Structures are given as C-alpha cells and as structure tokens.
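Quick one, T. Sequence first:
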Amino acid sequence: MKETNEGKKSTETENVSQKVFGEIKNKNIKPKPKWEFLLKDYFLWFLGIFSLVVGAFAFSVTVYMFENNDWDVHMDINGSFLEFALATLPYFWIVCLAAFILVARYNFQHTKKGYRRHLHLIIIGGVALSIVLGACLHSIGVGQLIDDVLSENAPFYNSLINKRKMTWIWPEKGLLAGVIISGDNYQHFWIRDFNNKDWNINGEGAFIMQRVEIKEDNKVRIIGEKLNGNNFKAHKIAPWTRGKIAPFLLKMKQGGRLEETRQRKELQNK
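Structure tokens:
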C-alpha cells in the first residue's frame, strides 16, 4: 500500500514536471542571465544606501532647525510654549527623514537574501545609520548650509517650509533680524533685514544674549521696538545661529555666490 502511494506521488511529480517543461518549450521561455539578477541586486543596494545618505542630510537639517528654533525668546514670539513648538517644528524635514528611511528599508528588504532579514532590525539599523551620519554632517554645518542655500534660492522655502526668516521681518511687533552691514559696537550699528531693507539699530542698554559679535556679515536677532522711519530700539540682541559652517564648506558657498554675481554682471553687460 505504501509503495503504491509513493508510486502515485512519483507519477504526479513527473506529470507536473512534463507540463512545466512543455509550457517553457511552447512559449519559448528562456532563463534570465545571472548578470540581470546581479545588476538588480546592486541597484537595490545603491538605492538603499543613497536613501540612507539623503536621510542623513535631512536629519542634519532637522537638528539644525531644532537647535536654532528661537527657544530662548519664544515668550517674545508666542506666549504659549506648546503653541510655539507646534507652529515651528521642522515637519517637512522630519517627514523627509522618515520617508527616505522607509525607502531604504524597502530596497534592502528586496535585495538578495534581504527577505531573510528581520524587518524591525532593518528599520532600526537604517534609523541609527542616518542619525549617526546626520549628526556628523550637522557638526560641520552641513544642515545650516542646506537651509541657507534653500532659503536664498528656493522662493517657496521661506514661506512654506522654514518660516523663521518671515517671523523675524516683523518690526511692528518688535521682531527684527538681518545681516550687520556696518558698526562695531552694541550701542549703534546698521543691519539689512531679509527683505533687503536697512535699519539703524540703537542698542544702548540692550540685553546681550549669548555671544554676539558685532561685525559685518554676522547675522543677529533683535527684539525691541520700531521708532520713526528705519530706526529701531533694541531691548535684546542675540545671534542668528548657534553653530558655524566649517571653513571649507563656507568657501564653497562663497565661491558659488561669486560665480553667480559674475554671471549676472556678464548678462547685464550684454
């Protein structure tokens, strides 16, 4: 009886094999070459690593924005800490970070033998790698550089993603920020706000927050009151950012600006 059952199973297996081979022969199906599978696998690995790197850049911007979110003067901007936090958190970059980590997880999971990996380990590993690399990028000012470049070149950025500059162009409410264009002491200096308007700052008796260096090209935040014309009385003066961009990155940024200025002059002369 046992031998009969085994014989039936063997016959059924042979029949299935014959049908499969018949289908392959009739439809002229050819096996894919090994290089196609390898190419797909390498491509998925590339996409996964690329997604983690982009996620790290997003994390560096998130940390930069969180660190420089005006927590020290939130009472002057919005009396409620909770409302201020909910209104100013970098949601766009947080979503970008999460999205690229999920994309990386998807790509790694679909590589050769990727299906054998535990899903939660892939996600935890992706988050950890993005955070570590992002922290390193933040330490040399990459997050600040990305934010500055987008703020200066992407019209939608300041109005939709990082509204910080828009908040500090509100002299009627006592909020003003910009780049110092002349002066070397707190008592009197000039700034150019983010709308390219010049302001004469009277800083006598103002409370100096953190380490503020009054010199050209430095950015400052000023809390006070608008006087007549373009005069502004400062009550508090604080730096615009806490960290600094690494010198080699700053040179790259300045080099880009010089090249842009040169191209504009060439267009004007034509």
